[in-house]
Design brief:
Elements: E1 3-5, H1 7-15, H2 22-33, E2 37-38, H3 41-48, H4 54-64, H5 74-89, H6 96-108, E3 112-113, H7 117-123
Parallel strand pairs: 1-2, 1-3
Helix pairs in contact: 1-2, 1-3, 5-6
Length: about 130
């Protein structure tokens, strides 16, 4: 099963020397080795937007170039809006990009690998699956 990798997980791998995130980094490496890691354009953009140093930006861009963007369908934008409205009715807020991630993951039937607590709240009211590791 493919897994949609959210921005924080990629960031741990590219930036963090913190032992706290070793488990997430190992899981990401395993997903990459098994060719199960998915990325979408907005996540790629979020990752790259964190690098104002041109050399670092190019290094990360090069590493990410090995991962094809999972296509975003027009219907994903509508589903993202529906997910946003459903969550908002329950008092749960989120960003447009987060709900787009949820919509794409739902359509391609992929769990989301993230440490962003917002997704745990979304999971309570919309039909997404969160990756729990191996």
């Amino acid at each position: 099963m493919k897994v949609l990798i959210d921005t924080p997980i990629w960031s741990y791998a590219f930036r963090s020397g913190n032992e706290k995130y070793e488990g997430e980094i190992r899981q990401l490496i395993s997903l990459i080795e098994d060719q199960r890691a998915l990325i979408i354009g907005p996540i790629r953009q979020e990752i790259l937007s964190g690098y104002s140093d041109v050399k670092k930006f190019e290094k990360i861009r090069e590493k990410l170039s090995y991962f094809e963007n999972t296509a975003i369908a027009d219907s994903d934008y509508v589903r993202a809006a529906e997910f946003s409205n459903t969550c908002r009715k329950k008092g749960i807020q989120g960003s447009h990009i987060d709900f787009l991630i949820c919509a794409v993951a739902h359509r391609v039937n992929a769990p989301i690998f993230t440490t962003d607590r917002d997704f745990h709240n979304f999971h309570k009211v919309i039909p997404i699956t969160l990756y729990k590791g191996q």
